[in-house]
Amino acid sequence: MSTNVKNILAGLRIKIFSDGADLDSISEAYQQKLVKGFTTNPTLMARAGVTNYLTFAKEVLRIVPDLPVSFEVFSDDFVEMRRQALLLADLAQNVYVKIPITNTRRGSACALIHELSHRGIKLNITAMMTLPQVRDVAAALHPDSSAFISVFAGRIADAGLDPLPVMREALEILKPLPKAELLWASPREALNIIQAEQMGCHIITVTPDLLAKAKNFGKDLNDFSLETVKMFYNDSVKSGFSL
Ligand code: E4P
Q1: Up-side HSE of residue 240: CA atoms within 13 Å toward CB?
Q2: For the packed helices 78-91 and 110-118, what is the interaxial angle rounded to 10 degrees?
Q3: Which of 144, 121, 134, 155 is nearest to 43 (CA)?
Q4: Can you give the pTM of this predicted structure?
Q5: Of 15, 36, 58, 98, which one is the catalytic site residue?
Q6: What total number of domains does the chain contain?
Q7: Ligand 1 centroid to residue 77 C-alpha, Å
Q8: 201 within 8 A of 167, measured Cβ to Cβ
Q9: Which residues have CB under 8 Å from 19's CB, separation 6+?
Q10: At 89, which CATH number?
Q11: How many CB atoms lie within 10 A of CB 71?
Q12: Is residue 185 within 6 Å of ligand 1 at its C-beta?
């Protein structure tokens, strides 16, 4: 990534987190110092071939000792979820425990969120997509306890809806909670980093692939257009097309 793009990203107010479970990518992102935290989820871990959760988590924390790292509980039962949450929180000071907003039977996680937050456990409430969910979580959190509120803007957009009004209102709802930060989850394009920045969102978590697309930030559009024309031309030549 060019120094110019690095400067553009470093100049943003929003904190960029890296979303993934590939240890090499996590290590590279940490060393590049472009991101301010890390998120994972069970799907990303499965995709990366993780089989031993605890070994994986400890390795991530060895690579990232001093930035927020979110690990998700995976039980569908709230008692077991609580045990997993306490175990994960115990691993290191920089762990944020990811709690899904409901279990798979639509049971609300808010009672557990209330308990953990009031115990001072740092949380990342995940898979959120509606404003009533944000209101319920805001009511459950302790005002002095740190929490990320992960609203899946990209999935809202996948459903054909504009996520921006939801994100703006979520920010309003969280205003009375100084330690609750709105996290734009599941971004779908590099533009989302700019949109999240402009609306005052605190954090956006991006996959390494998406962050790589930010290499085009600040590019002159005439140059970008020419680069695209050249790409079409070179590929036609390479393929030996004739008509
Ligand atoms: C955030 O913490 C999530 O892991 C992530 O943004 C989910 O993205 P997806 O909706 O593309 O699965």
Answers
A1: 0
A2: 30
A3: 155
A4: 0.95
A5: 98
A6: 1
A7: 22
A8: yes
A9: 38, 39, 40, 41, 44, 185, 205, 206, 207
A10: 3.20.20.70
A11: 30
A12: yes
Q: Is 195 in the pocket of ligand 1 (CB under 6 A)?
A: no
Q: How far is the CA of 23 from the centre of ligand 1 (A)?
A: 17
At residue 72, what is the residue type?
A: E
Token reading at 127: 């898979």
pLDDT per position in the chain (243 positions), as tens? 777 788 888 899 999 999 999 999 999 999 999 899 999 999 999 999 999 999 999 999 999 999 999 999 999 999 999 999 999 999 999 999 999 999 999 999 999 999 999 999 999 999 999 999 999 999 999 999 999 999 999 999 999 999 999 999 999 999 999 999 999 999 999 999 999 999 999 999 999 999 999 989 999 999 999 999 999 999 999 999 999
Spacing, Cα 120 to ligand 1 middle (Å): 25
Tokens of 194: 């700019």
Which residues span the domain enclosing 190? 3-239
Amino acid at 166: V
Q: How far apart are CA 66 and CA 21, in angstroms?
A: 17
Whether residue 205 has its Cβ less than 6 Å from ligand 1: yes
Q: How far is CA 239 from each of CA 113, 204, 232, 234, 242, rounded to the nearest angstrom?
A: 57, 40, 11, 9, 9
Phi/psi class of residue 118: alpha, beta or left (left: φ > 0; alpha: ψ in -120 to 50)?
alpha
Helix axes 131-140, 163-174, angle to 10 degrees: 20
How far is 13 from 177, CA to CA, in rounded Å?
Answer: 19
CB crowding 190-200: b at 16 or more within 10 Å, else e: bebbbbbbebe
